[in-house]
Amino acid sequence: MRHALHVLAAALLCACQSWRPVESFDGWTLYAHEDVQADPKPWGDAYEPAHEVVESLFGPFERGVRVHVLQEDAPTPLGDSAVQMVPGIGAARVRAWHTRGDGLFTPPSGVYAGTPDAGTAAHELVHARLAEIDPHLPLWFEEGLACVVGDGILHQGKWIVDGYSCWPVHELRNERLDDDELRKLLRVRAERDTDARDNVLVHFIGWAIVFDLFRMEGGLRYHEWRARYKDGIELREARERLNRSISPDIEAAWLQRLQHADPRVRLAASKGVWKLQSRDALEALVDRLELEQDPEVKASLAVNALSAAGETRSGRDLARRMWRQVSPALRTLELSDPAETKALRDLYRSFRWNADISTRQALEGLKRFWSE
After folding, report:
1. Whose CA is closest to 233, among 188, 168, 177, 172?
2. Tell me: the pLDDT tens digits for 188-212?
């Protein structure tokens, strides 16, 4: 997240010399504190495909990127905990961030992350690349690009960009930003600090505007958009694009992607659908579950259907349909990753009486399919 880093700087300034290189990859290096054990394999599995896709969209990095493995108790840009309450919005989890510091009076430049995740990696590497290209962009534009590129699915070692970040839709519908607040958020520049609430809202509106561009113009056209929006965007255009991205029509069209012929598209489209918090989303997931044959897609549909059922009133009939599909999927599916297969079984066990594992614990092993 793009936010003032004074909290992090205070914690890391004295320790800035203690970062040690763990392993070098093509174009980036993994660092960790001297007292932190970082296994380079999961980090490489996450950041290699993310690095590749960011370079394919924005051009090669000018210099190697530093990726820093955080300690579990490290402070974040929002405070001393990874989860912070944002005024008027609710809980926000800081998974990672990018800073442009020089390491003298600020933390060394690079990405700071607590866990290896390809979507988070793609998001933060967009910030790292744009800092090289143009460090003075509107913040909504930079965050919007990062959100679109960071939304997708890791499939067979490749990051598949999907673009439809379901997570801001429900929040944006509830916020109903008036023109004055929207205008203020659109004026924030990438190099300026923001408070926690404005930072989160800029993520939301940035995604909505850039996703509308992405959808209507058939792909990500950074250089064209940069020339068009470097000096800002008119309020009327921003409002129109925002409203289109959160409209029921777009939601319905996107749920149709669950029927796409390409399993990679179905897999990417299913991830995070639970965040729409709607009965239509749950019904679309269950409808596809009844037909799906691809094990990975079926696992993602099952996890998202289960999560969606916990976020909306589904009704007895739909809930029964959901369980008739989800239960055997959790019990019988075999995935290429044995750890994910075990997590499916654990998720099934977590719903049984006297279970020795929590649903949250099981879902952590399946976060590739639902976490955003």
Report:
1. 188
2. 987 667 777 888 899 999 999 999 9
- Do 219 and 98 share a structural domain? yes
Residue 87 lies in a domain: yes
Token pair listed for 124: 């933060």
pLDDT in tens, 3-24: 434 444 434 443 445 889 999 9
pLDDT of residue 295: 96
For residues 222 and 214, is the Cβ–Cβ distance under 8 A?
A: no
Q: CA angle, corner 163, sides to 222 and 58, nearest 5?
A: 25
Q: How would you class 7 by CB atoms within 10 Å of its CB: exposed for 0-12, middle for 13-18, buried for 19 or more? A: middle
* Strand partners of residue 84: 92
The encoded tokens of residue 362 equal 């099981």
Residues 336 and 203 in one domain: no
- Name the stretches of the chain with pLDDT < 50: 1-16, 78
Report the b/e string of 48-71 with b at 16+ CB within 10 A: bbbbbbbeebbeebeeebbbbbbe
Q: Shortest CA distance to 98 belongs to which of 73, 74, 72, 122? A: 122
Please state, in angstroms and as integers, the Cα–Cα distance from residue 309 to each residue in 27, 114, 341, following that order.
Answer: 42, 29, 22
* Residue 231 CB partners (closer than 8 Å, separation 6+): none
User: CA 202 to CA 233: how far, in whole Å?
Assistant: 14
Whether the Cβ atoms of residue 96 and residue 114 lie closer than 8 Å to each other: yes
Structural domain that includes position 154: 6-246
- Local structure of residue 315 (DSSP, 8 states): -
Indicate whether this model's pTM tops 0.90.
no
CA distances from 203 to 137, 150, 165, 171, 315 (A): 14, 12, 11, 11, 33
Both tokens of 132, joined, read: 């090289």
Q: How far apart are CA 148 and CA 207, in angstroms?
A: 6
Residues 184 and 302 in one domain: no
What pLDDT is attached to residue 313? 84
Rounded to a whole number of angstroms, the distance between the first and last alpha carbons of the chain is 13
Cβ pair 350, 361 in contact under 8 A: yes
Same domain, residue pair 26 and 54: yes
| Cα radius of gyration (the chain) | 20
Closest of 42, 38, 43, 41 to residue 20, by C-alpha:
38
